[in-house]
Structures are given as C-alpha cells and as structure tokens.
Amino acid sequence: MTSAEITSGGGTEERYNPFTGRRVVAGVGDAVPTAAHLGLEPPRFCEACGRRMVVQISPHGWWAKCSRHGVFDSIAPGRR
Question: Roughly how many angstroms between the first and final C-alpha of the chain, as a whole number?
C-alpha cells in the first residue's frame, strides 16, 4: 500500500516525510539526511500517517512495519 492509496476522511491526501515524520506541505522544504538521498537509510516514519515504524536492517535489505499500514521493504517497487 502506498500513501497515494490512502486518503483522509475529507478526501484530501496527507503525506508525511518518511525520514523526519513531519507533514509534507507544498512549497515548504524538509531536510532529508544525505544517507537517505543515497539510498542507504531506511524510512523511520510511515508516509501515510507519520507514525514511527519498527525497522529491521539486514545485510540483504530492510523492512519497516507501521502498526496501521503494514510492512514496507527495500525490495518494494519504487524503492530500488
């Protein structure tokens, strides 16, 4: 499930920065760690709700679990 598939009750989509947990606001930049830009840092927050996720890192990749939206992993489409 992606954040594009999740909408709030008002019909507008809310997104959160997966590295800081802050709400994404159009026209306002949010700092993203350099390691995240390089693809070396897994997301720590859910893009759909902004909640902190449980993250497990292994030599072969990572997975992150949101209590509301399920598991995301490094092999998911768009994350390669």
Answer: 16
Run of H or E including 72? strand 70-73
Structure tokens at 62: 């990572």
Tokens of 48: 């759909």
> pTM for this one?
0.71
∠ at Cα 80 (43, 34), nearest 5°? 50
Q: Which helix (H) or strand (E) holds 58?
A: strand 54-58
The count of other CB atoms within 10 Å of the CB of residue 16 is 20
Q: What tokens does 59 get?
A: 């030599």
**Neighbouring C-beta atoms of residue 40, cutoff 10 Å:** 9
Per-residue pLDDT tens digits for 17-46: 888 888 888 777 777 778 878 878 889 999
